[in-house]
Design goal:
The protein has about 325 residues and is α/β, with parallel strands linked by helices. It has two domains: about 190 residues, D-Maltodextrin-Binding Protein, domain 2; about 120 residues, D-Maltodextrin-Binding Protein, domain 2 (3-Layer(aba) Sandwich). About 40% of the residues lie in helices and about 20% in strands. It has twelve helices and eleven strands. The strands form two sheets. The chain has a six-stranded mixed sheet, with helices on both faces. A five-stranded mixed sheet has the order 7-6-8-5-9, sandwiched between helices. Helix 7 links the parallel strand 6 and strand 7. It is globular.
Length: about 325
């Protein structure tokens, strides 16, 4: 698996350019620095392209927060590029402003561990961990690959292209672990988001794809794709996915869940931090949150504020053992 170790200089350059550009655009956010609560429209930054899991998450949370706080307006702004570095760098430039949020996931941890960027999870204010999301390995129905174990076996003898979202994101971690633990040798092709990865496997540009259930459920139901396994320790309880075997069942000792959450810029006032955590708790207790979790087939493992920060620190330590190999 080559994608995890290649292209680091390119990603570093992208993130540096993004930071310089976003600093030039950051005046509006800086005007609100130190404010006790947002004033006017709020921007939910999605650091990946439209159509993927991060985009779905950002839009669901934006709507849920607006519903939980009457009068609040939250607009979604997709700022993809640099495998997420562009969006995170943009949020970095809004330090102190309560008018910005970001739909985050595991790239918040894997990017700083893999490439030279100007941020880490400590650069931002943790608001809410929404839940955990396991990835599926999928292929076209007519593919000769019939399981995850079969995919690993075939990758040792022929070239197998696998699409992933981001060169250093959760999918890359899964394939890195496949190589380390099972001797697989996939050629991974990184895309900017789940939507592009989906298009690649449906169009035959890659033979396999690593996608979250929410990204691929429509295609599974329509018979356009088949699920080979889920990289989890236990099968999903959701009826639509209960038939999908785990990687462990197939003798592949790889299990990895990415988190989904919401962060705000660093340097928020205590009042603004409390405002967003309270709003997130209101969202978490609403039917909108339960509908989001169910529709995206997530595990509803929540954390708020300092508890979310502690989770990030622990997950960073675990992830470093994989990403920095």
């Amino acid at each position: 698996m080559r994608a995890l170790s290649c292209g680091r200089r390119v990603l570093a350059a992208l993130s540096t350019v993004a930071l310089l550009s976003s600093c030039a655009l950051g005046a509006t956010g800086q005007e609100q620095a130190g404010a006790p609560r947002p004033v006017g429209p709020v921007t939910m930054v999605v650091p990946f392209a439209a159509g993927g899991g991060s985009d779905i998450s950002g839009r669901a949370v934006a709507d849920g927060l607006a519903a939980a706080r009457p009068g609040l307006r939250v607009d979604v702004d997709n700022r993809e590029g640099g495998q997420g570095a562009v969006g995170y760098s943009y949020l970095l430039s809004k330090a102190g402003s309560p008018n910005y949020l970001l739909a985050t996931e595991t790239s918040l941890l894997s990017l700083p561990l893999s490439v030279e960027v100007a941020f880490s999870h400590r650069s931002f204010t943790p608001v809410m961990k929404l839940g955990e999301d396991y990835t599926l390995l999928v292929a076209l129905p007519g593919s000769p690959i019939t399981s995850c174990a079969d995919a690993v076996a075939q990758s040792r003898h022929r070239r197998v292209l696998a699409g992933i979202s981001g060169a250093v994101g959760p999918d890359a971690v899964v394939f890195s672990e496949l190589q380390r633990r099972s001797g697989a040798d996939f050629d991974t092709v990184p895309y900017e988001g789940g939507g592009e990865t989906m298009a690649a496997v449906l169009g035959g540009q890659v033979e396999l794809a690593s996608l979250n259930p929410s990204e691929v459920m429509g295609q599974l139901r329509a018979g356009e794709l088949k699920a080979l396994c889920v990289f989890a320790e236990q099968r999903y309880d959701y009826p639509q996915l209960a038939h999908v075997p785990t990687s462990l069942e197939q003798g592949i000792p790889v299990s990895f869940a990415q988190f989904r959450g919401v962060i705000a810029p660093g340097g928020l006032s205590p009042q603004a931090t409390t405002y967003w955590i309270d709003a997130a708790r209101s969202f978490a207790g609403s039917p909108a949150y339960r509908d989001y979790i169910a529709s995206e087939f997530l595990q509803p493992r929540m954390a708020f504020g300092e508890e979310f920060a502690a989770y990030l620190a622990e997950a960073e330590t675990t992830l470093a053992q994989v990403v920095r190999r």
